[in-house]
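To close the chapter, one final illustration. This time we ask the reader to focus less on the individual chains and more on the assembly as a whole: which components sit near each other, and how the overall shape emerges from the parts.
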Amino acid sequence: MHSDMEGRAMKKILNDPKNVVDEMLNGFVYANEGKVERIEGTGVIYRTFQDEGKVGLVSGGGSGHEPSHAGFVGEGMLSAAVCGEVFTSPTPDQILEAIKKADQGAGVFLIVKNYTGDVMNFDMAQELADMEDIKVEKVIVDDDIAVEDSTYTAGRRGVAGTVLVHKILGAAAAEGKTLEEIKALADRLVPNIKTIGVAVSPATVPEVGKPGFQLEEDEMEYGIGIHGEPGYRREKIKTSKEIAEELVAQLKKAFNWKRGDRYAVLVNGLGATPLMEQYIFTNDVHALLDREGLAVDFKKVGNLMTSIDMAGISLTLLKLEDEGWLAFLKQPVSVPAWA
Amino acid sequence: MLTAETAAAWLHAFAEKINENKAYLSELDSAIGDGDHGSNLARGVQAMEEKLQAGGLETVQDVLKTAAMALIGKVGGASGPLYGSALIAMAKQAGEDEKDVASIVKAGLDGIQKRGKAEKGEKTMVDVWVPVCEALKSGALTKEVIQNAVDGTKEMKATKGRASYLGERSVGHLDPGAVSSGYLFEALLEGGILDE
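The assembled structure is written out below.
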């Protein structure tokens, strides 16, 4: 039995907390047998499907955000994902292994969330790949508009919008776009993705054994990060409709949209919020975006970028500046976590 | 002269110094950081030694790159990426000219600064690498140059890295990264690589 500092039991279905990532990855590979494999001795999950002559996509980061990032490995999305320890960046040697696996002769593109450790480690992996004559480019995703500079980040954090980057770039790579074209697409795409979230209860990292922050029974916090980094305001818990109003208002300010603008919407559960609540929230967002006169051409709801057992939700909007982006979003894929 | 053999011997001597001073480095780090510099580096150099002893490394670049990979996979924290970046950059430069030690070490410094964004005078390993690079360029690297550079960090105020949270309170303590970098260059001197 694992317990927190007050001696209360941490109620999780676990064995030794030290082995969570290793055991999780083994289970993941078993569940998706034939579609994905793991490079032995690493946290690298790669797809068995090979796309000769096309650009490989590699993403990754700390674990604890499942189904990100390994859940998006497969035909039409990522070639490989590098899974670090819980909330801890993977090391460059492992990222390099993923790059080598993903390289099908046309270079490899890295999708990195904006956290200091991730940026540093993916950077180094890129330099290592360079020495092995593998062409590598990357994009840093920083879609969280809640706060500037955070516990682990200079600038804005990378959160749920990253999944849309996986999807769109994955479709572009599958279509045969070159590394340079994918880089240009990514650089245009990322500034058009913005996310903001709210948490109603904190996450517990298994090895730590107690929640990463405290919220009173009746409190929620706007703008919390996916590792429990501080947000921008605490309040008494509100209704779904009122929360949606706050988040949409923040996004409106950030995008400065006008009636008729076209958007894609992603409502993302942070781990412990039931789909029932996610759909209720989605219903409220729908009404607000209608009122704003936005054309929502693509919607997605579900647990895609979680924070272990944090309860809460995030709302991502992508401004569809380019007709091609919508087609890429709708392109069918065969990966564990995108239907 | 720098060759695959002397480069491996240099790193081996560095590993020995880290192991001998593991507790001291962690003690220095406890004063102004999180107290794990010695144990982190010791874990890293152990992995490095295993890789280097496996053999099959024919060039200086191979040796430096192998060492880099071992360190970045094992050290963690900030010093793993920083030493790793230094060695990767040095390996790249060794691919250009493996005899030119001054340029190789300078490339290492550039690698550290690119990664950590620290300038001279901020109480970091950079405060050892900069004077060492200058001395190597003019063929005047001595034990005193290294020692003075390391000691010089004592009176500096940290503005980068974890020690920067302490501000003025960091004054009066040696920077652990500077001390471990000092060992790297003492090992370089003692290895006879710089002798004609």
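Chain A has two domains: 19-190, 192-330. The helical segments of chain A are 20-31, 92-102, 116-131, 161-174, 179-189, 240-255, 275-292, 323-330. With these observations in hand, you are ready for the problems at the end of the chapter.
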